[in-house]
Model the fold of this input.
Amino acid sequence: MTGRTYVARLDGREMQDTDAVFQQFYDGLRLPDYFGWNWNALSDCLGDLKWLSADHHVLIIEAADEALPGDVSGQRLLFRTLLRAGQRWSYRQKPEGIELGRLVVVMRCDAASAPSLKEQMLSCLEEPPLS
Done:
């Protein structure tokens, strides 16, 4: 990668409820004050990131499998939001000779949890787009 890279580290263990998820993203990505503290607002912000003066963005979520414990639908919303953001950044068309910014999302967990996290992420890919 060329250019400046912004790296944000979030912790799934700190994401005990939806408000804590949004707080982690707000703090880690320095979300703008107009952030709406809901899933659509998070999706919109992840699709933009223009307030960060960087050419590339790396979002690392430690213990991703521990986010939103006991809230299966909330965890799926989080994972789908992250997957869709990654897809949007990956498939942008660029004019010849111009390199556009990127968003890389890294979901980390311990080795024992990796197969389950992978299965969850793959099942999220099969769902229809968020409305």
Notes: The radius of gyration is 15 Å. Residues 44 and 90 are 16 Å apart (CA to CA). The first strand starts at residue 5 and ends at 11. Strands lie at 5-11, 56-62, 102-107.
